[in-house]
Design goal:
92% of the residues lie in helices and 0% in strands. By secondary structure, the protein is mostly helical. The protein folds into two domains: 1-46; 58-106. The termini are far apart.
């Protein structure tokens, strides 16, 4: 039995040594990857052309203002049409009542 415990400890020790070696390789690979990413990021930001979007932003703001103006006009027209629809509905109800009354008399 004593030998089994000793063998188990030796085996665990070997597994831990392999795990430590794998961790060291993994950390080294991460360092290389991070370094490459940093280099690439620096190269990209230094060489990337700077694009001025101010004209496009101004055009979009102008279009937005025009659309807001049109929306306000449509809202006013919608309210006006709703008022007219109410008047028409009232007149139709009155006309229907008169027709029914006339038919009832006839």
């Amino acid at each position: 039995m004593g030998t089994n415990r000793l063998e188990d400890r030796c085996e665990r020790g070997k597994q831990m040594a392999r795990l430590d070696a794998a961790m060291a390789r993994f950390n080294a690979a991460l360092d290389v990857l991070e370094s490459g990413c940093d280099t690439l990021a620096n190269r990209t930001s230094d060489s990337a052309p700077q694009i001025d979007h101010s004209e496009e932003i101004a055009a979009l703001k102008s279009e937005r203002e025009q659309l807001l103006t049109r929306i306000a006009a449509f809202e006013e027209e919608s309210q006006s049409l709703a008022g007219m629809a109410e008047v028409v509905e009232t007149r139709l109800d009155g006309a229907i009542t008169e027709i029914r009354a006339a038919l009832g008399r006839g």
